[in-house]
Each structure stands twice: as C-alpha cells, then as structure tokens.
UniProtKB/TrEMBL annotation:
Naturally occurring in which organism (per UniProt): Sylvia borin
Example of a GO cellular component annotation carried by this entry: mitochondrial inner membrane
The entry's keywords: Coiled coil, Membrane, Mitochondrion, Transmembrane, Transmembrane helix
UniProt-recorded name of the protein: MCUR1 regulator
Highest rank taxon of the organism: Eukaryota
Localisation per UniProt entry: Mitochondrion membrane
Family the UniProt entry places it in: Belongs to the CCDC90 family.
Residue intervals passing through the bilayer: 178-197
Biological process, per Gene Ontology: calcium import into the mitochondrion; positive regulation of mitochondrial calcium ion concentration
Length: 198
C-alpha cells in the first residue's frame, strides 16, 4: 500500500520528543494499521469503474425498456381514444339527423294545421257571408277570435321549434363536454407518462 506520509520522519519526530525508538516504531505501525483499516472500509463502499459502467448499462437498458413500454401504451391509449371519438362523431351525426327529421316533421305538421285552420276560417267566412251577418261588431269579434286562434297556433309552432332547438343545443353541449373530457384525459395521461419518463 502507498502511504501518504514519511514513516521514518514520523519515527524521528517522536524520538526527538522523548519516545524511544521501539515506542516510536510501534506508534507508527499502529497508525499505518489504522490507516489501512480505514482505507479498506472506504474501498468496501466504493465500486470500480468497470462495475460502475456495468450498472450504468443495466440502468440504460431498463430505461430503454420502459421507454418502449410507454410508447406502446401511449399508442394503444391514443388509438382507443381515437376510436371513441369516431364513435361519438357518428352518434352526434345520428342525433343531428334525428333532430333535423323531427324539426322537419313538426314544421310539416304545423303547416298542415295552419292550412287546415285557414281553410276552416275561409269556410266560416263564407258561411258567415252567406248568412248575411247583420252587424259589423259581430264580424270584428269573430275576426278577433280567429286571429287569436292563429296567434295561438303560431305560438305553439314557435314553442315547439324553440324546444327542439334547445334540445339540440343541450345535446351539442353534452357532446362537447364529453369531447373536452376525453381530450383532457388524453392530456393528463400523456403528461403522466411524460412526467414518469422524465
């Protein structure tokens, strides 16, 4: 073992300070043993450069395996989310088509009802005219009633159309919320993988 101090000089220094030669040599040999023991204990906790490189290679291969697993998992998660988004788009298109069909049906029914009301009003007008209504006040009252009936019919049509529009908007909002939730879930998963990777 290499010693980092001069043992002979230490023996001479001890002899100059009143120790005998034998005592000085014993003290120096004890110091050398203590130093060797300390160095051995330090060497037990240390690794060689070759061992360090082997451990580094093992860690790097483990990190490479984890990266591959993360890439595979990320691809599978994103493909699942894409398929879910495609399903949601198809469902949205179906719902939109159904709502459009319902609106068209309601409009057609309302137009038919309106036409029936108009024809009924015309028949009533012709009937009233044929009976020769004597007073103008009765005619005005009758017109007011017919206007009220038409106004109520128009209000019914408007309320039904408004209800359908609100239903469509609520479906749109629900689907947008679901899509936003899916996107945030994807981002959370990606950030989690990114954080684990780093």
């Amino acid at each position: 073992r290499r010693l980092y101090f001069d043992t002979h000089a230490l023996v001479c220094l001890l002899e100059e300070n009143g120790f005998t030669t034998q005592q000085s040599e014993v003290i120096v040999s004890v110091l050398v043993k203590i130093m060797n023991t300390n160095v051995d204990m330090i060497y037990k906790d240390m690794v060689t450069k070759v061992q360090q490189e082997i451990a580094l290679q093992q860690v790097m291969s483990h990190i490479g395996g984890v990266k591959k697993d993360m890439i595979i998992l990320e691809k599978s998660e994103f493909s699942a989310l894409r398929s879910e988004n495609e399903k949601i788009k198809l469902e949205l298109q179906q719902i939109k088509k159904q709502v459009t069909d319902e609106i068209t049906k309601v409009r057609a029914d309302n137009k038919l009802n309106l036409n029936l009301e108009k024809s009924r009003v015309k028949e009533l007008v012709s009937l009233v005219t044929s009976r020769n209504i004597s007073t103008l006040g009765d005619l005005q009252i009758w017109h007011a009633q017919q206007d009220r009936a038409l106004t109520q019919t128009d209000r019914k049509i408007d309320t039904e159309v408004a209800d359908l529009k609100t239903m469509l908007e609520s479906h749109k909002l629900d689907n947008i919320k679901y899509l936003a939730g899916s996107v945030f879930t994807c981002l959370t998963v990606a950030l989690g993988f990114y954080r684990l990777w780093i």
